[in-house]
Amino acid sequence: MLRAPTAGRRSQRALRGATQQIWRRRRPRGGRAWFGTDSSAFTMFGDLFEEDFSFISNNHCGKGKKSKPRESEPPAPRDFTNLSGIKNQGGTCYLNSLLQTLLFTPEFREALFSLGPEELGTLDDSRKPDAKVRIIPLQLQRLFAQLLLLDQQAASTTDLTESFGWSSHEEMRQHDVQELNRILFSALETSLVGTSGHDLINRLYHGIVVNQIVCKECKNVSERQEDFLDLTVAVKGVAGLEEALWNMYVEEEYFENDNLYRCGACDKLVEASKSAKLRKLPPFLTISLLRFNFDFEKCERYKETSCYTFPIQINLRPFCEQTEMDDSEYMYELFSVIIHKGGCYGGHYHVYIRDVDELGNWQLQEEEDGLIEERALGDTENAKETENPLAVLKRILSEEEVKQIPVDQLGQKLLEKKGVSWNKKYRKQYGALRKYLQNHPQIFQLTPDGSKVGLKEAHKFRLDSHGQNLQSPSQKNDVQWNCEKNPPRPRAASAGCHWFDLNDSKVQPIKEKDIEKQFQGKESAYMLFYRKAQLKRPPEARGNPRYQIPEHLLNEMNAANTELQKKRAECDSANNGIDLHLHLSSCYRFHNGALHPSLSWKESVVDLTIDRRKTLGELRQAVFQMLESWEGDMVLSMAKPLPAGLHLYQVLDGDELTLDGTGLADGADIFVWNGKEVGGTKVLAGPEHEPVVLNVLRLAEHNEGGKGQHFSETQLVVSCSTSLGQLHSALAPAGGIILKNGSGADREAKNWEVFHEEDMKETVQSVGLRDGCSVLILDSHDQSFVNVASGNLTAFTYDISWLQVKNFCGEEEEEKHVKITATIDTMMSDIKMKAIRELQLEEELATESCLRPVSGNGKLLSPVPEDYTVKEAELKMGSLLGLCRGKAPTSTQLFLYFMVGSDQSCSPEMEIVVEETASVRECLNLMLEKSGLSGDNWHLRRLDWCYEAGEALSQENATLKELNVCRGDTLVITEGKLPGKGFLKIPIWWLKPSSCKKHGEKAEDQVNGITWKMEALQVSAAAAPPEPAHPGLDLCYAGRIEVAGEASLEDLKMQALTLPCCQEQVVPLPSFLRAWTVDSKRPGKLLRDNKRKLSDYRLGARVEICIEPLQEEENLGPHELLLRVQMGIPGERDYFDSRDLVWDISKECTTWALRQRVASHYCLPVDKIEIAKYFPERFEWLPISSWTQQISKRKKRKKHESLQVAPYHLKDGDIIGVKNLLLDDTKDFSTIRDDIGKEKQRQLALEKRKSRQERVQDPFFPEEKLPTKPRKPEVALSINVGVFR
């Protein structure tokens, strides 16, 4: 068995392959994570319907375009369907499906659009205090306009959900679409009170059901009316919708025998019949299917997946009270089906919708292919007919009932009839469709605006009842229509009969028969929407998404589309630019099988930006222009940084080829040389000469204590074409053997394979040796470790199949421990009894002790229930357990840690066992009693991941189970009462300047070394802080304030000045104070705008604020960045005191703009300064660009990248160091203070590594188990609406 040596330098890491030593001389590669689709949930089933996310982490890409923030990329345009989807905010698929249904209900959409700003107000007035703006209808109007007109693949519902009053947590929660339908309608009714649309919902969706009881004796009828906006029908035990409606509204229930009815007229118990009927039918009928039920025998939820049919058209006459009207009054047509995919514990919503107004382009790929194939097999006459677009268009127009149709609809008709679009078939020969119609004015009649077209009377076909043309052959324009093969489609069948599947952002056409697939299964219909067949759409609405949209929304969408086109053009230009890294041969030397820079890596590389659509010849010319001093031949070769160094591959030949065609990607490396040698040394290029770095291991002569094996490790660079025979001759002595690690870098190294004599002709590449692979060299006397028959090194493997138990019940200083043999199915009670016997303890201890896992830092974790197995307790073999006094908690009890205050050095951690049904107040009282405290001025908080007091348990009457307090959680007893609802209790810090400049001191004086000192601001320490001040910063704790969430930032500043230690400061106005959030014990986010409400900042319950006094008023705008600049002291590794610099970034936030602003501040030339950003947490300075990289203006300028993204992430409060090159030519920005900080960090890292190695050395030490994710509590769905009565 191998064990890691105590020395730690050459450890078991060597046997695991030692493949992690990769030199990364390039910038780090990016990684992306893909996220799965969402799953829906239902409030009626609580937290069981959580979002079903799937994560794929860190799929590292190779070279490629640097990932940009998604906000900077314009949204994708609509696809061929010309319909827009809706983005999923994380868990809003139920909302998206309902919104699409309402959008494709034209009558609802147009009624909403008919409400103007004079009734609803405008979104611009929403922040005015006295304005009554009906935000929800306005945002719904705007979203519908975007879905209809904005050229983007998917619209966002963020503004709409914000108008609902939903937070980001609400958008991630899942709810029932049936519940949302009712709540949204209620919110709209409330929002539209007092407008002409006050009855919009009732007018379209309101119906009446009447329940009647008829006395069998006196025939008295007792009835009761019920209003409905949707009908809920049973699924269980019913074959389909019509049977369910029959059971509800046709069959009668009888009161007889022992179950009699008391008649009001007879005043006695009589026989009677009970029934229900539909008294009033709405224009739109919504039906909810009860798919989810509860099995009371099994006590579990389940989803009804049996077959449940519903018709496309349904006659409701049998279910209505009044049946004397015409059949058309009872006919309804299906136009939307909301589908739920999944089970009762998770799933996803999407919707099938019939395009009533023919707004989308419907085309199935298989139908198009079939029609094209059928036409290809047709006779010559039909082929000639297809080639004549004039006859085809005349035929289509003559079949129309109306005189004129939109031109876009004509193109759609052509697609339906011929199976191929105009652009695909005729555009190349005849031009655009509209232009073709204009070129034949003698046949086609267009409206003045060119939007509609019809046939002139002289050219109309006359058809008989079978669709045959009754004109003479001379009038048919020589076209013979084969009506048997291609009969003309009746108009009624094609109008608005196309269906689409709208699945969040994705929209695709489907066939009507695809609806039948949703009758049953885990993916099945959940809500049905019918419309009266009598409802006819006006001809001008067909194919016209702009129909009835208000003018102000049309203008807004036109402007948005113009901006989108502009952004897409800019993005296209940016996406075609690639960055190439040119490596100059004059800066390299060939050494140890690869190219290495003779200077620094940065100085050996020149960056070039070029359009990927340019040719290699243009690239070569650009390189020549950059390198004006180049002499002789120039060869460009593809290069790649490898662990061994830079290696060359193919030569870039063919000046006429484009860069994209040669495979040059963004970030590609190109080596510029003469094609023969580098520095007088011949260079072998190509993949067959690729260098490989191998780790060569040998058994060390000294083996301390005999515990495992020690190894010496060296590295060797060889060509991948080197044979194993050559490798053996160079490494292994006579009689020695070579073994390779066959397990890979990330697996336990226990399978070492021997290279046999017949393998010696193989190459390094063919046997699978790659960079970082390990080879083990054994001399003849070391070969006893090898099983030569199997060719494996097996003497070093081991398997742990036991647990270690340490005795914590005794009073001895050194606790004894034993190993207990166990499997994953061994009961924890058996392990405890075995441990008691082997530790020779008293048997009575079995009832008064428990087993507790020991964490990596020696902490005793919560006890393990004794009826658990090792697997159920989630223990790994080899884990360390502690045998401690005390009973293990039962399944209904919680074992909790708690402390007074979050400072562990002042308050020790204590333990307590409480019932999970205990309230927060009861739990707090028990903890106060155990800790010896009293009074009611305390409350409980959770311990966050930073081991600080976090979220408060504000619901003191709620149980611990309801608040998801889990076994092993740590709670903090915090002094002070909880703030009232809507109030924030905020700790305030005072930011003391360590040394302040005199007001009005000029920056030029600082450059010349003239500085002035003044007394540091003294803050009284009258009130001792309840927690330590932040180390390393001039922050002084001032106290806590309680302020309303609706208060302004100015109110917070005024209240902070009332704190005892702040009252000594002379502050004329709140604008003389600057407010920051405290983040990682430093000033974090700058809070702008004194009039802004605190709730708008979304500060959170645990925010801390620091106040910084100013010597003059300040009112920063949203595009002004506050930086702290400090000039370096010439000749010293130190800086003058920092000064505030306000930088306007509204135009650009680039390196060049910042250099100009800093140079202007110090009155220095731009080319005579160097700047760098300081990262205080790492004690590092990152230079911001380099002036020497600004090359000739004849070159195409490099793309300007914002400093607010990687790697600088420039933000308010950042420190910018400045070097005056006129006085100081050193480019080292670091200070002595940085050296000390780095050394402390290095010592801390060494101590952690040493501690980790000591734990790794003990194979019995357990790993701390991550806590399981608690299930989210049930939260009811709600929409916040203002009062408009």
TrEMBL record:
It holds the Pfam family UCH. One of its GO terms (molecular function) is cysteine-type deubiquitinase activity. PROSITE patterns: USP_1 (PS00972), USP_2 (PS00973), USP_3 (PS50235). It is an enzyme of class 3 (hydrolase). Residues 84-533 form the USP domain. One of its GO terms (biological process) is protein deubiquitination. Keywords: Hydrolase, Protease, Thiol protease, Ubl conjugation pathway. The keyword DNA-binding does not apply. CDD domains: peptidase_C19C. Its EC number is 3.4.19.12. Residues 61-84, 1247-1269 are annotated as: Disordered. Belongs to the peptidase C19 family. This is Ubiquitin carboxyl-terminal hydrolase 40.
